[in-house]
Amino acid sequence: MFSQNSYNHKxxxxxxxxxxxxxxPQNQESFNIELNRIFRIGLNNGYQLKWLKQLxxxxxxxxxxxxxxxxxxxxxxxxxxxxxxxxxISSKLARLxxxxxxxxxxxxxxxxxxxxxxxxxxxSKMYKSGIxxxxxxxxxxxxxxxxxRNFNVRIKEHMASYKHKNDKSNFAYHLLQEEHTxxxxxxxxxxxxxxGGRKMDVLDFRVLK
Length: 209
Description:
5 strands; GIY-YIG domain-containing protein; GIY-YIG_endonuc; GIY-YIG_endonuc_sf
């Protein structure tokens, strides 16, 4: 995660994305596509999927509680003070000066929102989702799969299965059983780039026919 932004800033950025997702009326397919897009933004920027899912669950609970207790009055903070974030020293300073009536609001340069979207080149297909194909180095064997996350993450999962010698990946199982190899630089084909949902299922079906 970014060292030049406070944890509160990092968390707030994704809270905003999740809150917007949960508040905007849409069908289930559109909801899932947007949720996967948020997860992919996080993964592309070095955030753990476990952390993202946990935060998503927290935001669902928070919004539900707000609906149930909409009449309750929130505790009012009388004043906020801005402080440029410089790492742990800023957090320690904030704890010293904060009280019930005064809170510290960190800010950073540049804005974390810019970092989230500029960290990975949008032109790189490996950081998109869709249908992909993995080709064995030593035979005509291949594996076609789909992922709503970015290709880079999914392929790393295949390689992790191969490295740890488990059968979570059918492609890794083939490599292990046949004692074959795989070249990540030459053995990957991106067949279709698309978001998750029905369109991806249709494309996957057409490829496999």
